[in-house]
Design a protein that fits this description.
55% of the residues lie in helices and 14% in strands. The chain has 168 residues and is an alpha+beta fold. The chain has a domain of 114 residues. A 4-stranded antiparallel beta sheet has the order 1-2-3-4.
Length: 168
């Protein structure tokens, strides 16, 4: 029998933490922040600003008529499933792969919960400089972006396993 190699599925705990933080912050937003009203956190840079997004990043497809809700749910579930499968095939110690995958999964699931519960994603973090505003986002969005950056950065700047193994 082949030796059992611990896989990276325990990293899904990070996904659960992201989902819980995302949903708790959105519960706070929905119960405490007025809609479409800027509440300064750091004057000149950061507001709490409750808004909604029926599309994807930067409101992509937000005015598509409703079908996009199901498209983004299916897309997020498919990507999360693929990343979960990759986690199952990734050695547990390879945090440079496991952590970014877990962040993307947690963020995607957090936004899927919003789409299924509310029909849109709740956004509330607004960054700006003078008259230049970054689109509002949430904890799930931040986790997705951090995970995507990690996947790209560690993928671009790490040595391929075959090159490392060939030097031993």
């Amino acid at each position: 029998m082949a030796p059992v190699r611990p896989n990276a599925l325990p990293w899904l705990v990070v996904s659960v933490v992201v989902i819980v933080l995302d949903q708790l912050t959105k519960m706070w937003v929905l119960s405490s922040l007025p809609e479409y009203t800027a509440i300064p956190v750091i004057e000149g840079f950061w507001n709490w600003y409750r808004t909604y997004n029926t599309g994807a990043a930067f409101s992509f497809l937000s005015d598509a008529g409703g079908w996009q809700k199901y498209f983004f749910v299916v897309l997020a579930v498919a990507i999360s499933g693929l990343l979960g499968w990759w986690l199952a095939r990734t050695p547990r110690r390879e945090w440079k792969s496991a952590l970014p995958y877990a962040l993307v999964i947690g963020g995607a699931v957090g936004n899927v919960i919003d789409r299924l519960m509310h029909g849109h994603v709740v956004d509330f973090i607004q960054w700006y400089w003078r008259d230049h505003y970054w689109p509002a986002f949430n904890v799930a969005d931040a986790a997705i972006v951090a995970g995507a950056i990690g996947i790209a950065a560690f993928g671009l700047f790490s040595k391929p396993a075959t090159a490392v193994a060939g030097r031993r």
